[in-house]
Design a protein that fits this description.
By secondary structure, the chain is α/β, with parallel strands linked by helices. The protein is built from 16 helices and 13 strands. Helix content is 45%, strand content 15%.
């Protein structure tokens, strides 16, 4: 068995077995298989695709490359949620404490920003003192004691995915469906969960741009989960405009807290409740989605979900100031309103451009070693379908300097469309399967 022969067979469209995949992945982690050989394999996979069996084998091998958690007698069903990534998607932050208060246990391992999309870990780390790089034993202990945890992928948790993802990012193979599926599910299944609900984002601000692409990914996730004996529920949601009103790390945490206080925007609140309900239904704790949403809403209205979030944050070193308007989160030095001269109805706010602007403001990374400005971001006042008077601000830019804010305003002119007549609001759900 050798890497050259496996790469050749994959390039020619032949199926490869679990032993081949284990040889390649293990060899790459040990340094026996070179970067250029693994890059060639990834490209061959991106072009030729994988069968269901191959994708299952790759997911299994990646999952077993590190520690696989097991939760026993932890007080409730262990269910997680994942999103394929979008602009303004802060749902995981309020969802975890709500789900825990409804009886679930949620060992959430999240990621960092990638391209124009934000990362849950970067958002949470805008909270002063908050740590997500927890040792595995501490991660498990917190899930048992507090019901949930926000953790980062470490060298001992699916190290194969850490290594392969960096290579995929550099070789234009990120969008390959079997590689996406194995990356997502290897991390989630390593958590020791009994099921996962996955929000597949679709649109301008997502990796899956079209509905057909999103449905293909959703179907593959469900098939691989089924083949591995772990239920996977997918919900396909729109990502043509930013989700919620805030885009940027500290600003999104602020919005997440507002959701837990019962005063969040309609779309982020609705999606948080829906995905929580899907998790509860999967765990058998409710009989239908309506009952699940009712249970989740009660966890919010009672104040229990917010209290649970504060306990989780405190356990991970975070400090929130409840008496402060911004909860003690970092604030930008410059806040600049953005308006259009002519009135009308908002027809478009391009999520991808908004995400790119926030990245350029320092809210995301262009290189892995870059430091993020947690205060940078954009707050929307209007969304598609809303009416705006001439000169009325559509959004505001949060930046480190006036110069950066002016540059962002110029760039945002491409993101906004205004129509003379009424425009229907953007849908939240595209389909679910």
């Amino acid at each position: 068995m050798n890497a050259y022969e496996i790469i050749r067979r994959k390039r020619e469209g032949a199926a490869i077995g679990e032993a081949d995949i284990r040889f390649l992945v293990g060899g790459y982690l040990r340094g026996d298989v070179s970067d250029y050989q693994m890059a060639a394999f990834l490209m061959a996979t991106a072009i030729r695709g994988m069968t269901l069996r191959e994708t299952v084998d790759l997911t299994k091998v990646m999952m077993e490359s590190g520690r696989v958690f097991a939760f026993h007698d932890c007080g409730g069903p262990v269910i997680d949620k994942h999103s394929t990534g979008g602009v303004g998607d802060k749902i995981s932050i309020p969802l975890v404490p709500i789900a825990v208060e409804c009886g679930l246990r949620v060992p959430m391992i999240s990621g960092r920003s990638l391209g124009a999309t934000g990362g849950t870990l970067d958002k949470l780390e805008s909270i002063p003192g908050m740590r997500t790089d927890l040792e595995p034993d501490r991660f498990v202990r917190q899930v048992i004691e507090l019901g949930g945890c926000f953790g980062a992928q470490t060298e001992t948790i699916v190290p194969a995915d850490r290594s392969l993802y960096a290579l995929r990012d550099a070789t234009a193979t990120v969008e390959s469906v079997p590689l996406i599926v194995s990356s997502i599910l290897s991390k989630k299944f390593a958590e020791g969960i009994s099921g996962v609900v996955i929000d597949v984002k679709c649109g301008a601000g997502a990796f899956m741009r079209t509905r057909a692409e999103a449905l293909e990914l959703a179907s593959a996730l469900g098939e691989v989960g089924g083949a591995m004996g772990v239920p996977v529920k997918t919900v396909v949601t729109a990502m043509d405009e930013p989700l919620g009103l805030a885009v940027g790390n500290a600003l999104e945490v602020e919005e997440a807290i507002r959701i837990l206080e019962g005063r969040g925007p309609f779309d982020t609140t609705a999606l948080t409740l829906r995905l929580t309900a899907e998790m509860l239904l999967m765990a058998g704790l409710v009989s239908d989605i309506g009952d699940g949403e009712t249970l989740a809403r009660r966890a919010v209205s009672s104040g229990r979900a917010l209290e649970r979030f504060e306990r989780i944050v405190s356990a991970q070193g975070g400090r929130l100031a409840s008496e402060s308007v911004a909860y003690g989160l970092p604030r930008a030095k410059t806040v600049r309103p953005f308006a259009v001269p002519s009135g009308g109805f908002v027809s478009r706010i391009d999520a991808r451009i908004v995400g790119e602007v926030v990245r350029e403001l320092g809210g995301g990374r262009f290189r892995k070693d870059e430091t993020i400005d947690p205060s940078a971001g954009i707050v929307l006042f209007k969304k598609r379908g809303d009416e705006a008077a001439p000169g009325e601000p559509l959004l505001e830019i949060h930046a480190a300097t006036d110069e950066a804010a002016r540059a962002a305003a110029h760039r945002l002119e491409e993101a906004v469309g205004i129509s003379a007549g009424p425009v229907p609001r953007a849908p939240l759900y595209l389909t679910d399967g």
